[in-house]
Amino acid sequence: xxxxxxxxxxxxxxxxxxxxxxxxxxxxxxxxxxxxxxxxxxxxxxxxxxxxxxxxxxxxxxxxxxxxxxxxxxxxxxxxxxxxxxxxxxxxxxxxxxxxxxxxxxxxxxxxxxxxxxxxxxxxxxxxxxxxxxxxxxxxxxxxxxxxxxxxxxxxxxxxxxxxxxxxxxxxxxxxxxxxxxxxxxxxxxxxxxxxxxxxxxxxxxxxxxxxxxxxxxxxxxxxxxxxxxxxxxxxxxxxxxxxxxxxxxxxxxxxxxxxxxxxxxxxxxxxxxxxxxxxxxxxxxxxxxxxxxxxxxxxxxxxxxx
Length: 307
Hints:
The protein folds into 2 domains: 34-130 and 244-287, Immunoglobulin-like; 136-241 and 289-306, no CATH class. Strands 1, 2, 3, 4, 5, 6, 7, 10, 11, 12, 15, 16 and 17 form a 13-stranded mixed β-sheet that branches. Strands 8, 9, 13 and 14 form a 4-stranded antiparallel β-sheet that branches. The protein contains 4 helices and 17 strands. It is mainly beta and 307 residues long. Helix content is 13%, strand content 39%. It is globular, with a radius of gyration of 26 Å. The protein has helices at residues 2-18, 148-154, 209-213, 246-255, and strands at residues 34-41, 45-53, 70-74, 79-84, 91-97, 103-112, 118-127, 136-141, 157-166, 174-181, 184-185, 196-197, 205-206, 221-225, 234-242, 279-295, 302-306.
């Protein structure tokens, strides 16, 4: 009887699998939009704008870059052009310049089309306030009571990076730490960056005596020693002050990361580029303060330095 039952089950499975067929869903593709990745900050450097066309999520072809555009930023007094790199289509750079904090800048982009028309895009952004200076940074073991937890997990000594500065009194500000080791940016993608809303820390001296006594110091990055650090490594921290609405763009990008469109929202990323029906992306502005230190595996771990 058991043999007959197994045989009936086997026949049933054959019948079920024999009746299945692939279902092909025709996903409608929207018209390409213009992707904008534009930067302008208080850092003295060349600032970049990258222009490209969007593509279907499953499109495996190369990204189509946009050449021949006219790109500039202006504060109403000075106009700063972005010039396309001859050897890198779609990438536009300023001269070495620095923006001014608490100043409103307008990004303007004109793209000539094949039919002779010109697509005009724009965005207006304020470079927000920031601390007057970053007094110092220190690399040291975490001072909290749970310091042993990451050490056990990684089987390394965990060295944390602490900044020291007087925080502005504006609770709406958001800090974005940018960490360098030996002039190499370690936080070079959004998934490696960690924005810190100021909130209740407004007006406090960050990681000063009050925070130390309350055991509420704020590290902005950590290193695994000796895997990530060697004596003599130069560590630099740029603390960028960004506008709060950038957080929504940041979270929409981070939550959309991956290769499965069902687990993210790649079609619904926020944008501050206008008109919103023609473009996606972000005009990023920030004010920045910076300090550097050299790591040594001694009792003090590092020698603070101002920059």
